[in-house]
Amino acid sequence: MSSKDWIEKDYYAALGVDKSASSDDIKKSYRKLARESHPDHNPGDTGAEERFKTVSEAYAVLGDEKKRREYDEMRSLFGSGAFRRGARGAGQPGGAPFDVSDLFGGGGAGGADTRFGGGGFTDLFSTIFSGGGGGGAARPRGPARGRDVEAEVALDFSDAVRGVTLPLTLRAPGVCDTCHGNGAKPGTQPVACPVCHGAGVTTRNQGSFSFSEPCRNCQGVGTIVEEKCPECHGTGGVTKTRTLTVRFPAGVADGQRIRLAGRGEPGERGGPAGDLFVHVKVRPDELFGRTGDDLTLNVPITYAEAVLGTDLRVPTLDGTVTLRVPPGTPAGRVLRARGKGVVRKDGRVGDLLVTLDVVVPATVSDEARAALETFAAQTPPAAREHLEARVRRFS
Ligand SMILES: [Zn+2]
Ligand SMILES: [Zn+2]
């Protein structure tokens, strides 16, 4: 049973009772109709079977005090059938998916947010009819799903590598608890809009065409609030602050989006909650870089160290490691410290990749210069023969 059913179906008529009927009257009428139409008493009568279903469905709502209240609220809020008429007028024959954004030219969720803080009529509808997602394609019917919520979190480099649990405070629009979103002072109800008589749309004639547009007096809602809810000042929405704890797994990367199913806004009227999407920013580290699960580090060494070899003690994210630079190591060589990168829960382990930068001193002492000149005299020139042919072309 969907919200749409609630708007389209007159459960009072189905049970043959008045809107003001007491719960006893409703129960009595249901029992009588259910007995009369029960399939056991009417074998083979499909009409009776249909009636029995209709009566049961109506009683499932009206027989439940809470559901009945919500049903009444929704019917009074949307006027009976007004939007269905509008949707057909907008070119959707009966049976086609109902999409209010077609009717009002809104962009679906994420579009103009008028009712909650400035008019968010589209929003209210997307909450009730589909929840979160976004406009466009046909959405699954069903009870009102809460909206998705987006949040951004900046993590320290090392927290992202190791994983971290952080409290996250969200401020997001939600349905007012005091008036349950209808904007009316408790004890009062919104009343039918005098301009559109509850239809939510007004019709304008131009030549042989007639155009339907949302009623300006009630912003298409079909009702107006005479005594405003003190909590939300009649908008039906309030900004709510929630704090929740979010676990960021080891190895979470900059730009990654983490989805926490069901941690978005609570569903409307018992519907499922939306999702929370957390966009992760990772602050850069002054020493380490990261490629996937590997950490990277540049380490300067002298020419002498590259030629003669050395042991290098370098930092890791949570300690140090000693790496052997063998004699005759070329510039740019990458050494690997196994297991010193991201350690994931599932057992995957990254490494620390150390790139050796051979640094050339800008100035040297006289002794060093003398030693280098001796060194140069003892060393064959670099192998550049493969360049000679090209060089000769231009000489
Ligand atoms: Zn309110
Ligand atoms: Zn109106």
From TrEMBL:
GO terms for molecular function: ATP binding; heat shock protein binding; unfolded protein binding; zinc ion binding. A zinc finger (CR-type) spans 163-241. Pfam families: DnaJ (PF00226), DnaJ_C (PF01556), DnaJ_CXXCXGXG (PF00684). This is Chaperone protein DnaJ. Its cofactor is Zn(2+). GO terms for cellular component: cytoplasm. Zn(2+) 2 binds at C193, C196, C215, C218. The keyword Ligase does not apply. Zn(2+) 1 binds at C176, C179, C229, C232. Residues 32-52 are annotated as: Disordered. Residues 10-75 form the J domain. PROSITE patterns: DNAJ_1 (PS00636), DNAJ_2 (PS50076), ZF_CR (PS51188). CXXCXGXG motif repeats lie at residues 176-183, 193-200, 215-222, 229-236.
